Amino acid sequence: MRHVGLALGALLAALGVGLVLVGLLWLPADPNALGRQPFAPPSLAHPMGTDWFGRDVLARVMAGGRASVAVAAGAVAVGGLVGTVLGGLAGYAGGVLGELAMRVSDFLLAFPAVLLALLLAAVLGPGLLGVTLAIALFQIPFFARLAHAGVLSLREREFVVAAKAVGVGNIRLLLRHMLPNLASPLLVQATVSLAGALLAEASLGYLGLGVQPPQPAWGRMLREAQTYLARSPWPAVFPGLVLGLTVLGLNLLGDGLRDLLDPAARHLTPWRRRAGRGRRWAAPSPP
């Protein structure tokens, strides 16, 4: 709790994700039910107002977050698993195999994610599968680079050499002794990547990919609401606010976890950590 960014990020992320989780069990109204009060302002009956069809915006935000969070979490899980395995094998094996794996990672990083999503949507059709695969492929290079660098730094450490000396196999050595030491940076990367995946899903939903009408999704809700901004801003303000605060919370949470899991400065507040770095490199005072 001494880390303000970590506490604030955890709070914002919990509020955004918690709103979606509550929507799995309870909704204040049917998100697709037409109402008699279009463009109603926020009130007790409709805390976030209604849209142009009189539909409850709060119910649509809660229901629309299901697809957004599910796509982001699934893409990060798939991309993180494939990228970690690919980077770990490349760093441990080295040679031509390692270089080939990393060049594939560089190619995926250089390929435009939106163009890849459009290509997959053309092949698979608009829906969650194509968007999830596109975002997952875009996440692979980040995890691959992180795992590759971590395994390279651990490959010659004493405990790895000792494990080889007692006859531990390569696969067990990589999975049981090396990858667990990369859990902290991988967790931080997963948190930050989840924020990026949420933005990517909203961007692709804004382009018409992902969830199709009449089911709501945060990105498509923003696209549909932009036509009626002059009449009523609430159908655009609240989905954008929930999305922005959730992404901000995940980014702050990732930065806070990076500081928290740093063994050299784990018990210091951010202000003490910065002051310590300043004193460390300060020139000695004259006698």
> How many DSSP helices?
11
Q: What is the CATH-assigned architecture?
A: Orthogonal Bundle
What is the mean pLDDT? 81
From the spread of the alpha carbons, the general shape counts as: elongated
Identify low-pLDDT runs. 268-287
How far is the first residue's CA from the last residue's CA?
41 Å
The number of domains is 1
Q: How big a fraction of the residues is strand? A: under 5%
CATH class reads: Mainly Alpha
For the largest beta-sheet, the strand count, sense and barrel status come to:
none
CATH superfamily: MetI-like
Structure summary, number of beta strands: 0
Provide the helix percentage.
over 70%
Order of helices and strands: HHHHHHHHHHH
- What radius of gyration results from the CA coordinates? 23 Å
The helix/strand class is: mainly alpha
CATH topology: MetI-like fold
Structure description:
The chain has 287 residues and is mainly alpha-helical. The protein has a single domain, classed as MetI-like (MetI-like fold, Orthogonal Bundle), CATH 1.10.3720.10. It has 11 helices and no strands. Helix 2 (57-93) packs parallel to helix 5, helix 2 packs across helix 8 (183-206) and helix 3 crosses helix 5 (128-154). 39% of the residues are buried.
